[in-house]
Amino acid sequence: MSRRGPKHFAKLAFVLADTDEPSDTAMSHFRDRILTAGPGDELLALWRRKLTAWDFEQSPAWSATAPRTPERRAEVYEKLAFGADLRKALDAAAPVHTEPGPVTISREFRPWYTRDQAANRSFYWPSYERLLRRKGWNDAAVSGLDEAAHAVVERLADPTRDDPYGARGLVVGYVQSGKTANFTGVTAKAIDAGYRLVIVLGGTLNLLRGQTQRRLDMELIGQENILGAADPNDPDALVDIDYQDDEDWPAKFVSFGARPSVLGAFDIERLTSRDRDYMALERGISALEFEKPDRTRPLYDPANLHAARARVMVVKKNKSVLEKLVKDLKKMGPILGEIPALIIDDESDQASVNTTDPKKWEDGKVTRTAINGQISKLLQLLPRAQYVGYTATPFANVFIDPGDEEDLFPRDFLISLPRPTDYMGVQDFHDLDTVEDAEGEAEDRHVRGIYDSTGDRLQEALDAFMLTGALKLYREAHGVPSGPFRHHTMLVHESVRMAEHAALAQRIHTMWRDAAHTGPEGHARLESLFHKDFHTYVDDSLPNPTTYAELKPHVSNARQLINRGGTPVIVVNGESERDYAQPDLDFDRTPNVWKILVGGTKLSRGFTVEGLTITYYRRTTQQADTLMQMGRWFGFRPGYRDLVRLYIGREESLGRGRNAKTVDLYEAFEAICRDEELFRAELARYAPLVDGHPQVTPAQIPPLVAQHLPWVKPSARNKMFNAELVEVRSPGKPIEPAAYPQDARMTARNTERWKPVLSAVSATPTTCLLLPDATSPLSRSFQAATTVVSHAQLLSILSSLEWEDGNVLAPHLNYLSQLDGRLSKVDDWLVIVPQRTPRNRIEASVLDQGPFSLFRRGRQSGKASFGRISGLEHRLYAQQLIDRPDSVSTGGSSPALGATRGVVLLYPVVEASHDDDVKAVAATGAATTERVIMAFTVIPPKAAIDTKQRLVRFQTRDSTRPDAVIINAL
Fold first, then answer.
1. Peptide bond preceding 111: is omega within 30 degrees of 0, i.e. cis?
2. Of the ranges 243-247, 358-362, 675-679, 887-891, which one carries the lowest mean pLDDT score?
3. Rounded distance, CA 716 to CA 721, Å?
4. Position with higher pLDDT, 910 vs 703
5. pLDDT category, 122, cuts 50, 70, 90?
6. Whole-number Cα distances in Å, 486 to 100, 482, 483, 592, 692
7. Is the pTM of this model over 0.85?
8. What are phi and psi of 82, to 5 degrees?
9. Burial of 155 (0-12, 13-18, 19+ CB in 10 A)
10. Are 156 and 167 spatial neighbours (Cβ–Cβ below 8 Å)?
């Protein structure tokens, strides 16, 4: 049964049998074998694998049913002509996996990579598939990777096509979720299909590049290609061959049994090794001279292509390294136009994106950053090169200008990988569906907040590291496979400053030394933590001690492992590559890394911290992609996921001086995780084909990034020049424009638009009572004129206002316009027109209404924007009403606001530096409309939001279509 689909099994069995006549007896034997098979039966395992593959196959020619559905499975059984008893037995052995698969947004493409074509030339992919199964991957995981990798390769250009085309794509995974496995699968399938030059851009550090090289060597390239012609039994022949000091060589490195070329396939030549980045072609240009059996035909002709060796290099994203590569390739001449190449960019949002400011480009000519420029040159030199970026934080990539043909916008496809089975991610640390302010199960199990009231909890975190190490040793002693416990680590991330890392490491070293974990006081602390925390949340399916006394013998062993080498602490930062070459940090060559890692940014991107169990995190940042990449506690934790703890700052300072604020990092992580899920949901919304065609292409998708917290930007400023703010949703938060028009006639027209509200304001002032709060222990009050206007009336006024240099209110109006019941329902608005204190009050009528207090405000130096419009007490009072919608204002005359009423603070403002200027405007008792700016603050109800809680969205500008509407997704 090929990947063409299932066939009538009895008929197929007869055709393949040696008998002359079909036999019911043979089928009954098969049925009995399946019905009586045990869990380890080889025949049942084969059927389980085949059924899963058919279940997962995307858009096969043999089926119109959706993958991963009971309908697909039923169709498979119909085609096999299996009866009810067989179906029941096979369903029990191989249940239908209904979890979502990869989501693909794609241009239409030339179909070339069919399942049959892939099967006809398949050597490295089956080898990789077998290795994954040996590593313990189940059928669903292997089939899922197969489908995701196939989806990428089929959207690359046919390597044998006559006209060159370079596809551009992006694969979005989760932080530490196995993206390397996906691009290893893509590489295996691509070289099987005919791609003969693979360039993997493997991070910005030798450490990261070396990690990627090792993975590809171990799982794809294999022993025979690494050794070449060297005799593995001759020590002298192995002198210059890497991995001879590697703990996993050769046992865990894939082996084909002989050189692939001897087996009828083709060899892979490595142009880089574990310890050597690309410096220059070691054998000169000849290293890239492809052999051609028929020299009259181009390399991409099938007669030549499938006989040629593949070349693979893993290159650091470094300007000088890439320049050397580009320089060498330029020497190759016309052959470059014949080479089907694949460029895989790991962590493609780091260094690869052009971050120069378009406003600073000279004469409109694009200026590129160093790495972006070199990647662009590579793509120009290799017209048959395909570019596929991999990232967990795609926001910078989707903000690339789609109109820049030489840049890296994923114009051909964008694939969102599903959350892998057994992956420990946001849902394990955040209770996304729990009641607000209520601590839920995930938070209870894994999160330990650091507040001012708790102290820094660093000693507790260190004790937790010791305790979990002992628990791992206990489990190993009671039969749990020790592989996942080989490494045991703690990550401490407080700052980006290297000097602070050194000081913190010294402090931890001192605390660890003084902790006396194996003394009476230390054991008492550990026993208390065991019963208070870990004993409560252990996984009952694993062996666990019932008392600390059972665990106590393992504490000493854990301490010895952690102290090995003289210190429990390793500093890892960006001072030099030497910091990453420490033996105690080499997870590949060191048998047991049991250490506390102190570091910053370099520990937060691409670097896999093996065995990570305890994280202590207090570093603040304003970039969502940076924050997400620091989430090293996400990943796979087999055998110890119940022991994982995150100590995280809940009241951390961000900024300095007047701009300083306190932020909750746990809340920030939850917000950006919601952003990521909403982005994936946007992709899934448009993924289904309509009549066999894509609904939208990547360039048409609104690359709108949700943002739950105003202080977290989706990406660094220099990556966002092509991002345009589309919508701001502000439930329970003030909307306060600052840049009012300076043109007198425009000001006059805007003031006149507020006349219906001014005429409805009550002549009898209301006392507004502000209850004691953090700003004052005393109650305060002020007088104000008030009225209530309908939502439609307020929206009409706000929509008609004029603005200079673009409508600054537009993103807010996109939100407010949906509060008619589409997004949420707001019935009306309480309008508050505050009065100044009697001593400072300057009054005048406006449009024959009033009188009203006139407020003096000044624009910021050199800007059209005013400073804060609303007064502090006014704003606090309005916020008090919003925050307590069901409370009556005690002592004041304001009724309960209710859940469907918002608040508007409305100010007749005179632009002036002194009160005398305001008095001059009010001299006649009537202020002219061109001198009065009707400034306002709008605070929607807290309930004015949908269940997604999305607050801010952006879209990308396309320089070739400046006026184009991408798509309305509001």
1. no
2. 887-891
3. 10
4. 910
5. very high
6. 32, 6, 5, 5, 49
7. no
8. -90, 140
9. buried
10. yes
